[in-house]
């Protein structure tokens, strides 16, 4: 009975868990060459009231793949903040893509899945060949992704550009461009790159900022030349030394396709390779290479043997070259040394008295061994 209750509870729990993973589907329409931002709110996933703060994390991936497509990124500051899917689709990304997002409730461990159907198409309207990228150091990427800060940036940038339609085409975190994580100090931000495009040419102010003179001033640590009022300040602190302008109005010349030839070089008067190689005998070179070192080694061996064996002086020649007085002196010393050694070996001398037992140094007397040492006074004169 107890086992039956356990199985029933497990089946109820499994059914409840499967109920929490109900898949929701949402259709979105990203455009090629335009920034796409989708906010992941916990209210939309878990269907909670707005005043309820529940920590939620997300995991997103392309259907049938472990990760997101290359043009799409995911970021979330903390479980108490919303998540964002953002990126800019390329022309080769046109078509149909499905993103699966799973939300995890960190309090109750419930999971909710949502399927995002992305229908990527080309944008309508004129082309935007003039593109400018700005580095905003006063914001993080999560602070610019919502629509309100992005529209404020576009509106403020309109004062620096010629009148025309400005489109936000890309947003990238400075950390993805090799930037460093800032210190945990108030006011320090990671930074974000914002790329804007327009059909109108660049203004004189932007051209002056990107001029070589301004770049030279930036290399020396000075601010660049800015001939107009900075309408982005104080809400957006732009690093004007990191502004890049790209003009795509003039098409780039197509690369020449190399033509394949027949593989035979044309006649060149400066290059005349030999057509036939003459026969050559290498026996002489081999003999010279081997025999000459052997002969030299043999001559050196003979010379060394002559010096060591045939040039020895000998004992007779040494004695003849020595004077008679020196020879007599040497012989005398050797004879005296041998005589002293023989005398020392044959001498019979009694042992010194100091080495004998019971020897009295003061009187020179030697006591018999039967005497009791305890009865002998220390000083014999007092006896």
UniProtKB/TrEMBL annotation:
A molecular function GO annotation: calcium ion binding
Pfam families, per the entry: Sarcoglycan_2, Sarcoglycan_2_C
Q: How does it sit in the membrane?
A: Single-pass membrane protein
Keywords linked to the UniProt accession: Cell membrane, Cytoplasm, Cytoskeleton, Glycoprotein, Membrane, Signal, Transmembrane, Transmembrane helix
Where does the UniProt annotation place the signal sequence?
Answer: 1-19
Q: What is its main location?
A: membrane
Where can this protein be found? Cell membrane, Sarcolemma; Cytoplasm, Cytoskeleton
Q: What do the Gene Ontology cellular component annotations say?
A: cell-cell junction; cytoskeleton; membrane raft; sarcoglycan complex; sarcolemma
Which SUPFAM superfamilies is this protein grouped with? Cadherin-like (SSF49313)
Q: Where is the Dystroglycan-type cadherin-like domain?
A: 27-127
Q: Does the keyword RNA-binding apply?
A: no
Entry keyword annotation includes Magnesium? no
Domain of life, per UniProt, equals Eukaryota
TM stretches of this protein:
286-308
Q: What does this protein do?
A: Component of the sarcoglycan complex, a subcomplex of the dystrophin-glycoprotein complex which forms a link between the F-actin cytoskeleton and the extracellular matrix.
* PANTHER family, alphabetized: ALPHA-/EPSILON-SARCOGLYCAN FAMILY MEMBER, ALPHA-SARCOGLYCAN
Entry similarity comment: Belongs to the sarcoglycan alpha/epsilon family.
Give the protein's recorded name.
Answer: Sarcoglycan alpha
Q: Which organism is it from?
A: Catagonus wagneri (Chacoan peccary)
What taxonomic ancestry is recorded? Eukaryota, Metazoa, Chordata, Craniata, Vertebrata
